[in-house]
């Protein structure tokens, strides 16, 4: 009960904190217990209904959408621009001898633009063709990004001035809290384009591993087993693909004639495993997995055709069966497709060779399965020219295994969520559940209490998630207070110093709209 109480307070505070603009919200939807039938746990006139607010969003919905919209609208800046912005703002604060270094005057924007331009260019400006060439390959024009950042800061200051024309607190009037602005309106990104998302980083690691293998075993530490005189690069790339996929046919291995080469082979296997775990995991989660939604939709449509109708009236058993059918069907279809690719590819190679390399259809399927499952018995004699295909097929098989394991994990989570939400639907008219949310014991449950308590009950968040937020809340308002007041924030601003910036917005009547804090170290 105490945990839910703390979580409710934190959610209410957090939703207020993160609103960027003052916004009219819908009236709080409440559940009343006064009309409930005693002892039966059912409601006659007091069941939670959103019909009255169907034409508008609840306050919590509006705030959630506002937060998501603001996050999506953040300006991407490189780390160099981000640091230069903070450095220039702090330098201006020092030159102006402001009492704290976490803010500057709104009239310092022109000075900020000049200082930031000098800091970014260092007196050197790239010619136009060079800038266009670098931008073509995905590099950011840092000078242009810096100007966009200052433009947004100026617009933010102007918007604040319009919204708070009657602002009367002199110690905050005209101040621009640059650290808060940088935190809420920018998102840092890597300078190198190929390191800005997990998929590109994974592909870069894989490419470097494949290129490094023939370079190392053909030139740095020559190994005739891996890099023979003929087709050395092809054999090295095949060895890299085989090792990275953990198939291990046993047809190519490192030279074990010396202890040093055995050690090199051991370290190579460890590096290959690390690259596999990091790269293929990122590919499954961030890149190719985006196409999983297509297959899942097709499976749902097929399930409808054969009688697995998804309705609110489904029993728990039928819902679980539908989830299993869609997920397992998705894995099965991918397994069949990947193995058919291997079967038909090997048959094409067989057509070009003599009878010594001939496999039957079943043997081709046997080889494809042991490859896609990364088992790799190594008992099949292959055509050497088939290694061109094997390099890519081994990678495809490894991805399939990773995707299958990911789908199995998702299946377990989906089954757990299905059971939880099914039970949740059946508890909609349970008065005991709603009374547990009534922290104030006033016979009502507002939308914030209902949403947060529901998230905790559905295990979407844990009590430990709110502990750090509660600690910060108590630091601001004190253990004996139930809310953050203007007096609390004034005291926090006075004691903020150089390492902490706190700002907040008020409406024309002086009502608190948004408290914000940020412990951004220099």
From TrEMBL:
It is a multi-pass membrane protein. It comes from the Eukaryota. It is found in: Membrane. Keywords: Calcium, Ion channel, Ion transport, Membrane, Transmembrane, Transmembrane helix, Transport. Its main location: membrane. InterPro entries: 2pore_dom_K_chnl, EF-hand-dom_pair, EF_Hand_1_Ca_BS, EF_hand_dom, K_chnl_dom. GO terms for molecular function: calcium ion binding; outward rectifier potassium channel activity; potassium ion leak channel activity. PROSITE patterns: EF_HAND_1 (PS00018), EF_HAND_2 (PS50222). GO terms for biological process: stabilization of membrane potential. The keyword Transport applies. Residues 425-460 form the EF-hand domain. PANTHER family: IP11374P, POTASSIUM CHANNEL, SUBFAMILY K. This is EF-hand domain-containing protein. It comes from Trieres chinensis. The lineage of its organism: Eukaryota, Sar, Stramenopiles, Ochrophyta, Bacillariophyta.
